[in-house]
Design goal:
5-stranded antiparallel beta sheet; mainly beta; rod-shaped; 55% strand
Length: 176
C-alpha cells in the first residue's frame, strides 16, 4: 500500500473588513474578506460594547456576520479574528466612532455686534473633551466650550464689532 497523508487546512487570513468602522448605537452587517474560510468558521472580537452574530461563510474568501454596537460603547479600535479548523487568523482592526452630535436649540438665539456672551447649546451625543463648535460665516467665534451633559454644552460666542448681521449655523463636532 501507498501512504496518503492528511494535512491541516491552512489558517484563515483577513484582508479587509467592510465597513471598517461604524458609530455607537448602530447594527449592521460586516463583510470579512480573506482566504481559507471554511464551513463552521467562527468570528471573535475583543473589547466591550460590540457583539458579532453567527457568521455565514459565503465562499472561501467571504464571510458575512451581523454586528451590534451599543450606544455607550467606548470609541476606539476592536480587533476581529476568524477561526477555522486550520487555525485562527491574525486580527483586523474595526473602529468604533462616537455617534455624531446633533443640535436642537441655541439659547440665547442672538447676540449683538461687539459683544461676548455665554451660549447654551442643546442636542445629543456631546462628549467631554471631544466636542467642538464651529460657526459658519465670519465674525463670530466660539471659545470656552464646556460639555455639561451628553445633551448640553456652553460656549462663549464672541461677535466681532464689524460682523455682518444675519443668521449663522452652529455645527457641533465630536472627534475620536
Amino acid at each position: 500500500s501507498l501512504a496518503f497523508t492528511v494535512t491541516p487546512a491552512p489558517a484563515p487570513t483577513i484582508t479587509s473588513l467592510s465597513p471598517a468602522s461604524a458609530v455607537q448605537g448602530v447594527s449592521g452587517t460586516l463583510t470579512i474578506t480573506g482566504t481559507n474560510f471554511t464551513a463552521g468558521a467562527t468570528t471573535a472580537i475583543d473589547g466591550s460594547g460590540m457583539t458579532l452574530g453567527t457568521p455565514t461563510v459565503n465562499s472561501a474568501t467571504s464571510i458575512t456576520v451581523g454586528f451590534t454596537i451599543t450606544a455607550g460603547a467606548a470609541s476606539g479600535q476592536r480587533n476581529i479574528s476568524v477561526t477555522t479548523p486550520g487555525g485562527t487568523s491574525a486580527t483586523s482592526a474595526f473602529l468604533v466612532n462616537y455617534a455624531p452630535p446633533t443640535l436642537s436649540s441655541v439659547n440665547p438665539p442672538s447676540g449683538l455686534q461687539g459683544t461676548s456672551q455665554t451660549i447654551t447649546l442643546a442636542g445629543t451625543n456631546f462628549v467631554t473633551g471631544n466636542t467642538s463648535v464651529a460657526i459658519t460665516g465670519a465674525g463670530v467665534t466660539a471659545t470656552g466650550i464646556t460639555v455639561t451633559t451628553g445633551t448640553s454644552l456652553t460656549a462663549t460666542f464672541t461677535v466681532d464689532p464689524n460682523a455682518a448681521t444675519g443668521a449663522r449655523d452652529e455645527i457641533g463636532r465630536a472627534h475620536v
